[in-house]
Amino acid sequence: MNDVLGIAALALKADTHPPLKVVMVGHVDHGKSTLIGRLFHDTGSLPEGKFEAIKAMCDRRGMPFEWAFLMDALKAERDQGITIDVSYIHFRTGQRECVLIDAPGHREFLKNMVSGAAQADAAVLVVDAKEGVQEQTRRHAYLLYLLGIRQVVVAVNKMDLVGFDEARFLTVTAEVKRYLADLGLDLVQTLVVPVSARDGDNVVTPAASMPWYDGPTLERSLDTLHPPPTSSDLPLRFPIQDVYKFDDRRILGGRIESGHLRVGDVLLFSPTNKTARVASIEAWNTDEPVLAARAGQSVGITLDEPIFIERGQVASQPFNAPMLTNVFRGRVFWLGHKPMLPGNRYKLKLNTAEHLVEVQEIERVVDVSDLAKGAADRVERNSVAEVVLRSRGQMSLDPFEANLHTGRFVLVEDFDIVAGGLINMDGYADQRPGQVQKSTNIFRVAHRVPTEDRWAANRHKSGILWMTGLSGAGKSTLAFTLEQYLFRKGYQVYVLDGDNVRHGLCADLGFSPEDRVENIRRVGQAAALFAHAGFVVITSFISPYRSDRDRVRALAPDDFHEIFIDANLEECERRDPKGLYAKARRGEITDFTGISAPYEPPIFPELRVDTSQHSVEDSVALLADYITSRFDL
Amino acid sequence: MDYLDVLENRTIYILREAFNRIERPAILWSLGKDSNAMLWMVRKAFFGHVPMPAVHIDTGKKFPEMYAFRDHYSREWGLDLRLGECPPVEEMDPTLPPAARSAARKTAGLRNMLAVEKFGGLIAGIRRDEEGTRAKERVFSPRGEENKWDFRDQPPEFWDQFKTEFPPGTHIRIHPILHWTEIDIWRYIQREGIPVVDLYFAKNGKRYRSLGDQDITFPVDSNAATLDAIIAELQKTKVAERSGRAMDHESEDAFERLRADGYL
Q1: Fewer CB within 10 Å: N-end or C-end of chain B?
Q2: Which residues are CB-neighbours of A363 under 8 A, at least 6 positions away?
Q3: Domain A2-223 has CATH 3.40.50.300
Q4: Best residue in A46, A60, A74 to probe B by mutation, most B CBs within 10 Å?
Q5: Using an 8 Å Cβ cutoff, are B8 and B41 in contact?
Q6: Please, what is the Cα angle at B181 between B140 and B48, to 5 degrees?
Q7: Is A587 left (phi over 0), alpha (psi -120 to 50) or beta?
Q8: What percent of chain A has pLDDT over 70?
Q9: Cβ of B34 under 8 Å from any chain A Cβ?
Q10: Poorest-pLDDT segment among A171-175, B2-6, B260-264
């Protein structure tokens, strides 16, 4: 008798097309389960005897007939009267096969709702005609948006409770549409249907009770939806799932997330930047060799060269590769029992890759009821937030808007998945260009004058004093004053200044994240040459990205001194020596550090100079002390 | 890719995740159509190999045709077959209805095997459309220390990111064909030419839709004697797949109690 409620094997015609996966969401008690029961009954999708069995069970319990019991297959749920997990039911409209995913309306079961809704192609949002849009209506709509679901049918339910009133329907419709439009959900696709699930009005049968409505029934509305397009047309992303050694072949296994590949194609592997050619596509029990494979296929390939490959690397075409970065901004929904806090570390899973990441910053928490963004120092369970995550190593990824498969991730704490998130790279650069050496056949020639001999002649060591800080913090002022002071003391010293190099060495570069990375790369290389030549070189660049500064440090690890010229944003904006902040605030300059682009302060600078506390003279004295104590021979 | 390809590729992905992330996985082979189709996809996933033990929990009460099938194909497919014995019914929870009590032997046999072999994960061929409690399953479904399934607090599962971390002393059930339906499986068996036990095909107006122990499994009325006929029958029928399984029908919650206790 347990099968009574089930969901039992409804044998339906299997089309060659996959069924449309539809998730039902909405505020608790707005009538989702009843609507599902109705939809099944009225489309003739119930197994024989189900209706009677549920009726018998309700009679036995002395209660009126309850459609919702069809879904609530577990005893515990029947007793509680709420759906506690996700269920999947196959049914058929007049036109197509569907899988209905029922997600719970109760707030604390968000993770189950996410588990169900993430697989859906489309959603039905159920809204009570009397109560209108409620907290969970908004929350669920927002999650649909985060999960990437862009097709929504709205069922305004319980029309019988408002006397089938058209005006009330239009009010609720306007309310829902306003919220969906604010989210950016496509309104052209949004059908709103007035229904009464209890009586079956406009579910499958057009309702005589609402003659003013001439749109499609809920069933017909589902027929207007489409499965999402495949990702075969996007650039190739082939995350490596495993490396097998069967029968002396080394086979790279994985699923092609987007794009396609062919035997003979050159693949670039990230983050290692190694390339090799596809020698074969391996398959079992096929008559003919497989020559090509595309998005959605779980395949195995061999390469023509034995380069090092491991799980988590991503294969792509050489010129359409994922971004490499150790930092990104994520929009996350938080499922953890413990709050997310700045400085916390989590295991990030992105396709098959895993990285240890640290929460660098919680930028804002989104209030889903009015979409307002507020500052916060933590993310609580069931909240949505924008955060900055940083890893040690390089991560291969795409912005979510460019590729949903490689643009989303989950976070794991202890043994549990505690968050899902979408990647946004606005303001952050692709770090790949700095890692690839394009010219080949270049050999280094050894100098006959060792750097140590230059030091002895100069009577001081050489090195790079890398000043970083916001515009207006005082970098240039201090750099030139310090240069003058050291020169008078007999130092070989020279300043590389941001504004100056942009007139020559870097005249071709703008202020986009990519150009900033290249700007700092060139300056870093030039500074390293000066240091080898025996100079104390002082650089004065905002250099907002930690990864760029770390890369310069790697050029001359023993001779690099990171000097944090620190002044808070308000102070810099007050000084505004070049009038740039004012322009940025007016929107005349885009990508301005501190206003519309990020600044990542050093974590362990060799020296920090707080210019909002110290005068120029004091600051120079501090710097001079630092230099003479470390550089004098 | 057609629909069966979509289903197959997702199953292969899940099987490879299980093989990569789970220490000492084993695959449960009930000898039924579903686990045969699943084993077939294991061989696809691993290029003709079955790189993990295949476990058959033997109640000793299966049909003779099933034992013959097991002996033949475990050799032909080169399986590392492990047989798990089940304790007598007298040792089972006496409060369970008779058929469920009999079926509980399988859970006990499974538990004994886990205790000996220390498998970190069991790959099982259950499907969501079979039965109400299975509809709520996760693809990677953790089991507690007593093999218990906590269906009230299941881990989130989305974007094909599965729970692959869990504390010592627990194990995980992996369900690679959870998203298939009964008719999908038959269409796949037909397309791929996968062998199945003859009992599925009608003789004298009866056939088995689901295979379990002889004494608690009953045939349904059917004249479907070929794959085509079975598929045609399933397109029309409104009879539940497990209608011939006695333990499903004894009480409202018998099967749920079995599953919470570790039954597949």
Answers
A1: N
A2: A329, A385, A386, A387, A388
A3: yes
A4: A74
A5: yes
A6: 65
A7: left
A8: 90
A9: no
A10: B260-264
Q: A79 pLDDT exceeds 70?
A: no
Determine how β-strand A274-282 pairs with β-strand A266-270.
Answer: antiparallel
CA distance B150 to B141: 9
The domain locations on chain B are 3-180+252-260, 194-249
Half-sphere exposure of A420 (CA within 13 A, CB side): 30
| CATH number for the segment(s) A238-316 | 2.40.30.10
Q: Is the peptide bond before A239 cis (omega within 30 degrees of 0)?
A: no
Residue A186 has pLDDT above 70, yes or no: no
pLDDT tens profile A336-385 = 999 999 999 999 999 999 999 999 999 999 877 667 777 788 998 888 89
Whole-number Å distance between alpha carbons of B214 and A540: 83
Residue A43 CB neighbours (<10 A): 17
Output the pLDDT for position A443: 59
Tens digit of pLDDT for each residue in B101-149?
888 888 888 888 888 888 989 999 999 877 767 777 889 998 876 667 7
* Cα four-point dihedral sign A206, A212, A218, A224: positive
- Contact of B146 with chain A, judged by CB distance below 8 Å, is answered with no
Burial, A243: exposed, middle or buried (Cβ in 10 Å; 0-12, 13-18, 19+)? Answer: middle
Q: Taking CB atoms and an 8 Å cutoff, what residues of chain B touch A15?
A: 3
How many whole angstroms separate alpha carbon A240 and alpha carbon B141?
24
Q: Does A325-433 match A2-223 at the fold level?
A: no
Using the Cβ of B187 and the Cβ atoms of chain A, whether some distance falls under 8 Å is answered with yes
- Under the banding of pLDDT at 50, 70 and 90, the label for residue B216 is confident
Cβ within 8 Å, pair A2-B256: yes
Instruction: Report whether pLDDT(A484) > 50.
Output: yes
Which residue ranges make up each domain of chain A? 2-223, 238-316, 325-433, 447-631
Q: Which two tokens stand for residue A428?
A: 């952050």
- What 3-state class would DSSP assign to A156? strand
> Which residues have CB under 8 Å from A290's CB, separation 6+?
A281, A282, A283, A299
Fold classified for A325-433: Elongation Factor Tu (Ef-tu); domain 3 (2.40.30)
Structure tokens belonging to residue A477: 């002022």
Q: Pick from A12, A115, A414: which is nearest to B158 by CB?
A: A115
Nearest CA-CA distance, residue B118 and chain A, Å: 20
* pLDDT at residue A435 in the model: 67
Please write down the HEC assignment for all residues of B5-50. HHHHHHHHHHHHHHHHHCCCEEEECCCCHHHHHHHHHHHHHCCCCC
Residue A436, number of CB atoms within 10 A of its CB: 10
Apex A144 CA angle, A140 and A147, nearest 5: 130
Pairwise CB contact (< 8 Å): A3 & B48: no
Burial (CB < 10 A; 0-12, 13-18, 19+), residue B224, is buried
Q: Tell which of B136, B184, B187, B230 to mutate to test the A interface (max A CBs under 10 Å).
A: B136
Question: How much of chain B exceeds pLDDT 90, in percent?
Answer: 50
A16:B43 CB<8 A: no
- Scanning B43-62 for CB atoms below 8 A from A yields 43-49
Residue A206, number of CB atoms within 10 A of its CB:
16
**CATH class for the region spanning B3-180+252-260:** alpha beta
Tell which CATH architecture fits domain A447-631: 3-Layer(aba) Sandwich (3.40)
State chain A's mean pLDDT as an integer: 85
- Look at B156 and A3 and tell me if their CB atoms are within 8 Å: no
Q: Which of A197-201, A507-511, A622-626, B47-51 has the lowest mean pLDDT?
A: A507-511
Weakest mean pLDDT among A85-99, A112-126, A248-262: A85-99
Token representation of residue A418: 């505690």
